[in-house]
Queue: 2 jobs
Job 1
Amino acid sequence: MRDHPKLIEASRNGVTSYPNEWTNHYLLGIGYEATGQRSEAITEYQKAVHLSEGNLDAAASLAHAYAEAGRNAEAEKILAGLLQRSKNTYVSPYLIATIYAGFHDNDRAFAFLERLTKKKRWTSAGISKRTCASTACAPTCASRVSFAGSSRTLSV
């Protein structure tokens, strides 16, 4: 979705109707972050993490927003938790790459994204490479990834 103002509007309506549904707060955070409203995004991501009891997507988004806002200690704490958790269970490298992108550490972000191409797993988005390549979602999913300040792209 590229119409972030409409995402914000729809998510606000969702929060009003279902204030304890974490996905509404998560989507509102995405809309806020995409429109440069970092403090509002952080607030909504915090609510999403709390209500979801630690959903990894919400936690990674919160860490990304913290890093973008210069709240490095808070972002690093979440990142460390995800890296520790990944030793015992699967944590999508995409989520970790997202946090490194928030720190503008493109080398580490791409290193984790390259792990995806080797494993051919897209669990964060819930799609496979084959599905992605054969549908209209390809331009909007992680089939081509680039980060601000980097001239590299990763094609899968």
Note: The chain has a mean pLDDT of 82.
Job 2
Amino acid sequence: MLDLNNTLFHHLSAAYSDDMDMKGALINRRLEFYDYVSYDVLDGEGAEEWVSLRVGDVIDMKEEEEEDAFAIVRAIFCHMANNTNRYVFLIIDWFQATGNKDELLECPYYKLHDPEEVQWRRIYPISFVDHASSTHFIHHCTRHCTNMHDRNSRLYLRNDFFYNTV
């Protein structure tokens, strides 16, 4: 159950009003969470692209300020709107370019925003992702990353050397 005072409740309301043009108070506060989702994206001519997203995947999209913007999927959930239709949404954490590059690989560094600090919205409808991403990020491990990544280290390296084998 989504608490009315939770920031995510306000982000979900904004996703309905800003992205889906569905204004009004949210009556249903129940959410159903999933580990992954797969869907087809159709254009006006019937062409389609198959997209599969998992929690932890990186998505990319065009953005006004940074041209290419990147985010990591933190959760996938379904919500029943006031019209009784069910809609799928993503909770994401945004990456921000630092302007620095790794000296050896010359790949750019990005900082993963702390969800408590970021002023950007974190919930978007699934239609926000209209293509499969081929962008990969690697956590910049510190000496505190032993058995798992240090949650305080939010620095990542964008892997520009990813390629598809033939």
Note: Helices lie at 7-20.
